[in-house]
Automatic annotation (TrEMBL):
This is Large ribosomal subunit protein bL21. It comes from Phyllobacterium phragmitis. Residues 104-160 are annotated as: Disordered. Keywords: Ribonucleoprotein, Ribosomal protein, RNA-binding, rRNA-binding. It holds the Pfam family Ribosomal_L21p. GO terms for cellular component: cytoplasm; ribonucleoprotein complex; ribosome. This protein binds to 23S rRNA in the presence of protein L20. Part of the 50S ribosomal subunit. Contacts protein L20. Residues 114-123, 132-146 have a biased composition (Low complexity). NCBIfam families: L21 (TIGR00061).
Amino acid sequence: MFAVIKTGGKQYRVAANDLLKVEKVTGVAGDIVEFGEVLMVGEGASATVGVPVVEGALVTAEVVEQGRARKVIAFKKRRRQNSKRTRGHRQELTTVRISEILTGGAKPSKKAAAKPAAKAAKPAAEKEEAVTAKAAEATEAAPKAKAAPKKAAAKAKSAE
């Protein structure tokens, strides 16, 4: 059985135990991810084509590793203008192993990993609070530090 899934703006034809590199998917090695956009499922002539997706179809995969592709060099030159620019880009990729292709609303045998975005939002909020607290302390301490030298300078002038 095969399926055509859509992820990262691209379409992939997959089967069980296939190993493929897709655009970055959140998760660490060993996590289970689900691909819900299944465009086609089937075997040979009995393939089901979705409009635009197949209802109740799901593909689960295990994250093998997170990595980056080879560097792509973008070089631009304007002749006789003494102008050139070089830029490099490395696309982030995730290597996944397809574990199951499910149809008819079946549940996966392994549970998908919880979304780490919710976990990442809490530490970000805590960091922001800590930064604002430090900034408030700095602004309170700054006028006091500036006032002390002025007073000392005024006392020195009056003493003369």
